[in-house]
Amino acid sequence: MPTVLITGANRGLGLEFTRQYAAAGWRILAGCRSPDKASDLNAPKGDIAIHALDVADTASVTAARAAIGGEPIDLLTNNAGFIEQRAGKLGRVVYADWDETLNINLFGPARVAGAFVDNVLASRQKKFATVSTRMSSMNECKAVDFMAYRTSKPALNMMMTLARQRTRAERRDRGPPASRLGPDRNGWTECGDDAERQREQYAA
Questions:
Q1: Could you give the 3-state DSSP secondary structure of residue 179?
Q2: Mind listing the pLDDT tens digit for each residue in 23-50?
Q3: With b meaning 16 or more CB within 10 Å and e meaning fewer, what string describes 1-27?
Q4: What is the CATH number of the domain that holds 184?
């Protein structure tokens, strides 16, 4: 049975990833900030272990790594993300929002990938996946808002590319392949009658 670690597993795309991998027979390591409040994670049927994991907090990531131990992880899915509520534009940027966005969207996946790289390398599939977005596309961008979110994701894409290359070099080409998943919208913000169908479409 393959194992997947999913961050931000209690809502949005993360919850849909959890449902679909559980239905496919995977073992799920479901990471979320507050397991006691993650009641939706009790609904999917399958081998699901819920772990406290706040990607913005190094101590939380370290504690999750200690709790999971040396269990091999075939697929590490960096899904947890954040989009600022105040749509920052040039000249009206709230830099505290930018700091928070980078800490979650860029430094968070780096913390998680670094903490669990040995677990991934110990598995059969040896894969990383990271949720990105078309909102970060330089070719397609026509907007002027959400500067923090739009700038965090290209940095994330480059970080994962560099991590893959360095891991392969240091471990004699044993480094795991990395994928970037890019839904049209942030999975946390889907709402309304069509939200569940959209989450299923993006996660499939």
A1: strand
A2: 999 999 999 999 999 999 988 889 999 9
A3: ebbbbbbbbbbbbbbbbbbebbeeebb
A4: 3.40.50.720
Domain that holds residue 33: 3-203
Q: Would you say 53 and 64 are in contact if contact means Cβ atoms under 8 Å apart?
A: yes
First to last CA, the chain: 19
Q: Cβ(76)–Cβ(112) under 8 Å?
A: yes
170 or 14: which leads in pLDDT: 14
For 119-143, write each residue's pLDDT tens digit: 998 999 888 888 886 665 566 666 6
Distance CA 173, CA 31 (A): 28
The DSSP output letter for 43 is S
